[in-house]
Design goal:
alpha/beta; 12% strand; globular
Length: 194
């Protein structure tokens, strides 16, 4: 298999990079695996500056990190680095890989779709709707083409199935991080307790 990531394999920090490192460690202990990464070309600085200036002036910016130039560079690096002998490509994440066009079966692991991420972590109104819609449409096509999609939560899975019309049978929840049951009632009383 090819394990495709924008992080270094040995990066075992917390969060997304830690999930990547531990997933690689687990999969590579069970399969003959080729690490394809890190694939993380720089975002074009001119496009970043123009987008930031537009947003600072109260206008909508673009998303150069997922701009066509960078996505094409990612796809080119992926095609050059992947092993053609692999029977499966596994992508850590989805949005950076939308133009990769895997030649074999592929899976992906995501914790949220691009629009979910925008709703939770960003002010989507700061960015051009045409840019957001292009990225969302490309991600939908990429995910629909996957043989299996692993999600970090049922919330992300259900939202992605509805938003992208994914086949439920091609999705699995693998639960990353703490698996704490959701309490029936909030009993927080202001103390410094977890």
């Amino acid at each position: 298999m090819n394990f495709v990531s924008n992080y270094a394999a040995e990066d075992m920090g917390g969060g997304w990079n830690g999930t990547n490192g531990h997933t690689w460690k687990g999969l590579s202990s069970q399969f003959t695996a080729n690490y394809v990464g890190p694939i993380d070309p720089p975002t074009p600085i001119g496009a970043k500056i123009i987008s930031k200036l537009a947003r600072s002036a109260g206008r909508r910016g673009t998303m150069p990190v997922f701009g066509r130039a960078r996505l094409n560079k990612i796809a080119d690096l992926y095609q050059r680095r992947r092993s053609s002998q692999a029977k499966l490509d596994h992508f850590h994440g989805a949005t950076p890989w939308v133009l990769c066009d895997p030649p074999s079966a592929y899976t992906t692991y995501i914790d949220a779709t691009f629009p979910q991420y925008m709703e939770v972590f960003a002010n989507k109104n700061e960015f051009r709707s045409v840019d957001r819609e292009r990225i969302e449409n490309e991600e939908a096509i990429f995910l629909r083409g996957a043989d299996l999609i692993f999600f970090g939560s049922d919330w992300a899975r259900q939202n992605a199935i509805e938003r992208y019309a994914l086949e439920k049978r091609k999705t699995r929840v693998v639960f990353t991080g703490g698996k704490v049951p959701i309490p029936k009632k909030d009993r927080y009383e202001g103390s410094a307790t977890f």
